[in-house]
Amino acid sequence: MEVNAMPASLPMLILGIALTLAACEAKPQETAKLDRPVLVQSVAFEPRAPERTFVATIRPRVESDLGFRVPGKVARRLVTVGDMVKVGQPLAVLDATDLRLQREQAEAELKAASAAFQQAEAELQRIVTLRRQGWSTTATFDRQTAVTEEARGRLTRAERALLLAENALSYATLVADIEGVVTATQIEPGQVVSTDKVAIRITRLSEKEAVIAVPEAQIAAVRTGVASLSLWSNPDKHYQVTLREFSPSADPATRTYLARFSIPAADEPVQFGMTATVTIGETAAAEVVRLPLSSLHNQGGGPAVWVIGADGRPVLRPVTVAAYQSRDVLITQGLRDGDHVVILGAQKLDPGQRIRIVEALQF
């Protein structure tokens, strides 16, 4: 059987058809350039240092721990916790039997010393008279003079001993030295107390203060700041307080420093032992704009940020940086309240480029 051979011009024909089809195929359309997505933050100036709060306890400024000045056995306790006392009011009494005996002994010694002095002085006067008449020697006069001076000294010691005995007897009654309220009693009738024993604690009501514990990092802010106080029981009312005392050394256990604030306008609701909040703010706080570090853009001409203009396009604006923090940057100049700043995607922007805001943060 005879097979017909393929014409030699067939491959050339197929190639020509392919070229024709390729020439007739339409050109691909150019894809439109997409808008750059960015994250934008609306900025506002705020104090550079935020207010700091500390937990405080209301304490009295003056708190007296009273104790007996002589040892003895407690006979009576005349006050209890919560009693109001005045200056000179008796608080407790010791058994004064031994103290009275000591006073009587001192009185007897004083009488004996007084009699001995009077006798020695009379004898001296007689010797002086005899000496003028030539019947007494100088040695006798000197000896009697010494005896008289010794008797005078014994009389003086007896007078002082009687005074001490009377004082000791008066110390058997413990009296209040300030006007206030009794906040603690540590003695009971029948108890034997010593002079170093705290018997009764009195707190003065006229002056109240707030006590806080300050960490080392906040010492400067507490010393120079403006403070206010609010009670946990009434947080809506605020009291102005002033720093009265700052501890020069840290507590060995907590490593904090005690600060005491006076409360000049403390009223009846401010009670001892209450818990409060002390808020510390700067006296003249510098205002800054706080932005993430990712918002800065620097091409060698200094720090700048991208600000969204009125036409919705980014504009590079130079700024003045006050400080760099771990995550934020503090800006003092170059921005205004209400400006919209690109905080994410700033490194990929060009002036006038079309953008698409993904999310707006309001502060």
Automatic annotation (TrEMBL):
It comes from the Bacteria. Its main location: other. Keywords: Coiled coil, Signal, Transport. Residues 1-22 form the signal peptide. Residues 211-282 form the CusB-like beta-barrel domain. One of its GO terms (cellular component) is efflux pump complex. InterPro entries: Beta-barrel_RND_2 (IPR058792), MdtA-like_BSH (IPR058625), MdtA-like_C (IPR058627), RND_pump_MFP (IPR006143). Residues 65-200 form the Multidrug resistance protein MdtA-like barrel-sandwich hybrid domain. The keyword Coiled coil applies. It holds the Pfam family RND-MFP_C. Belongs to the membrane fusion protein (MFP) (TC 8.A.1) family. This is Multidrug transporter. It comes from Microvirga vignae.
